[in-house]
Automatic annotation (TrEMBL):
InterPro entries for the chain: DinB/YfiT-like, Maleyloyr_isom, MDMPI_metal-binding
GO molecular function: isomerase activity
Keywords (A to Z) from UniProt: Isomerase
Domain (Mycothiol-dependent maleylpyruvate isomerase metal-binding): residue spans on this chain: 16-53
Organism for this UniProt entry: Rhodococcus ruber
Pfam families: MDMPI_N
Protein name as catalogued: Maleylpyruvate isomerase family mycothiol-dependent enzyme
């Protein structure tokens, strides 16, 4: 169980990452804002609005959206994102900076959830744009340790697949099994379900993961 001091340290990392992403977003052209992100059906502006939404929208508004969508979390999230994008589309970098210190966590989750969210969504926006958004090594390692169990089990539905995850651009390895290698950012994208990132990982573990994904029944 994490202590208050541990949580506060993670919240400080979240705040710094939000400000860093906001500085990157401030440089974007209209065409870049409209670029498809790595999130299905979302543009870069949509992803930025998603990051801002929980910082400025009261929780009870999300409750109403959940009721409207009959408890469909993903659809409620889309509604909140669309609302923030329409109302604040040109103010997203400023809002992300102004509310960077907000200690929001999804119900039932600690601060590692929003840390992973902001880091992965930064990649979702920057990679399609060819922008190198720097994340400190220690911050990336903290997220990767959160995403991968000590056993190396791939966090996906279906039969358990244990792999040895190995970053090629920083000192991080986790798990025991067939090796899957790639940059830390690529590993984070693979671990959070971005299928396009599978093309950028290598090793026998990558082959097994791709095969397991391909054989997984579609919901």
């Amino acid at each position: 169980m994490s202590s208050d001091s541990d949580d506060n340290a993670i919240f400080a990392e979240i705040s710094d990452e939000r400000r860093s992403i906001a500085r990157t977003l401030e440089t974007l052209s209209p065409e870049q804002w409209a670029t498809p992100s790595l999130c299905d059906a979302w543009t870069v502006r949509d992803v930025a609005a998603h990051l801002v939404a929980p910082l400025i929208v009261p929780l009870w508004h999300f409750g109403l959206a959940m009721a409207r969508t009959r408890g469909n979390f993903d659809r409620a999230n889309q509604l909140m994102t669309q609302r923030v994008r329409r109302k604040h589309g040109d103010e997203l970098p400023a809002l992300l900076t102004a509310h960077a210190d907000k200690k929001f966590t999804p119900p039932g989750h600690g601060p590692m959830a929003p840390l992973s969210d902001v880091l992965v969504h930064g990649l979702d926006m920057c990679r399609p744009l060819g922008i190198e958004h720097h994340v400190p090594d220690h911050r990336m390692i903290t997220m990767l340790d959160f995403l991968v169990p000590a056993t190396g089990a791939a966090p996906f539905k279906g039969p358990e697949l244990r792999l040895q995850w190995r970053a090629t651009d920083l000192d991080w390895t986790r798990g025991d099994g067939p090796i899957i290698e790639g940059s830390a950012g690529t590993m984070a994208l693979v671990l959070t379900g971005r299928s396009s990132a599978l093309a950028d990982v290598t090793g026998p573990g990558a082959d097994r993961l791709a095969a397991a994904r391909a054989s997984r029944p579609r919901s």
